[in-house]
Amino acid sequence: MALHARETGAERFCWFVLTDNMPAESFYRGVGATEDPEWRRWILPTGALNRLVDDAK
To answer: What is the distance in angstroms between the CA of the first residue and the CA of the last residue of the chain?
Structure first.
């Protein structure tokens, strides 16, 4: 997803996580995503997206 986002010009992407899905939340934190304080939406910011793209190369 990170590669596709970068290749299509996106600087970040967002997704939703079920409230009780702690394993997913832990994983997303581990790759550099942050929780949106008003939504159960997660955002992978530019720096973390770039790290994933670099790691995938």
So the answer is: 13
